[in-house]
Design goal:
Blueprint: H1 11-23, H2 33-39, E1 43-47, E2 52-56, E3 59-65, H3 70-85, H4 97-115, H5 118-121, H6 133-141, H7 145-179, H8 186-201
Parallel strand pairs: 1-3
Antiparallel strand pairs: 2-3
Helix pairs in contact: 3-4, 6-7
Length: about 210
């Protein structure tokens, strides 16, 4: 069973969730390219040309290469949507290679999360075997099995990280609880008082912090 209480969504995941909620995208069936483009006021076109996005003033446009397989077209749409969402405007061909690489990485990260939002994956019925979960994600969100597997592994890593952080916090809390005299057992309190009495009898001061 997935322990979603340990999952900490990233800032981009939170922003995607807010975006979808603001335009009424509530389920995997709602994640449709044409529908999302329409709701966001983006002109969507398909052409025999490399995919790209364009923004000038209030005009925003996404062009998708129609020679690609359907799942790749879908991926390209959300990649280009990521460029627009993150404000990657201007002629990227004139940018330094390192900066272009960063923009592409950000758009790719957005696409993966926008196609398979964590808050919708949370609502999916868990299959009997964990190995079947990527197939379920691929089917529900209409993405390739390899992309669904990447997202699934990412989710598991974040849950594991959350559990580890929680365990570390609880360990520190336990240490402080044990150090607090109010939480000591009766024998510990008795020995502590005897130790103080002996120091006082020897004329040694006792400093309590």
């Amino acid at each position: 069973m997935l322990q979603w209480n340990f999952y900490k969504p990233t800032e981009i995941e939170k922003r995607i969730r807010s975006l979808y909620q603001s335009i009424g995208i509530k389920s995997p069936e709602d994640i449709q390219e044409e529908w999302i483009a329409s709701l966001l006021g983006i002109k969507l076109r398909y052409a025999d040309a490399p995919s790209f996005s364009f923004e000038k003033g209030n005009f925003r446009c996404i062009v998708i290469d129609n020679t690609l397989p359907a799942d790749e077209q879908r991926k390209h749409f959300f990649h280009e949507l990521g460029h627009l969402f993150r404000g990657h405007t201007g002629d990227q061909s004139r940018f330094p290679d390192l900066f272009k690489g960063l923009l592409e990485e950000q758009a790719e990260h957005f696409a993966k999360n926008a196609m398979m939002p964590y808050h919708m994956i949370q609502m999916l019925p868990l299959p009997e075997y964990e190995k079947d979960f990527p197939y379920l994600i691929a089917s529900e969100f209409r993405v390739s099995y390899s992309l669904a597997t990447e997202r699934w592994e990412q989710i598991k890593r974040r849950i594991s990280t959350g559990k580890w952080e929680h365990a570390c916090i609880e360990q520190e809390r336990s240490r402080y609880r044990k150090a607090d005299p109010a939480n000591w057992c009766d024998d510990a309190k008795k020995f502590f008082r005897l130790a103080i009495d002996r120091k006082l009898q020897k004329g040694q001061g006792v400093i309590i912090r």
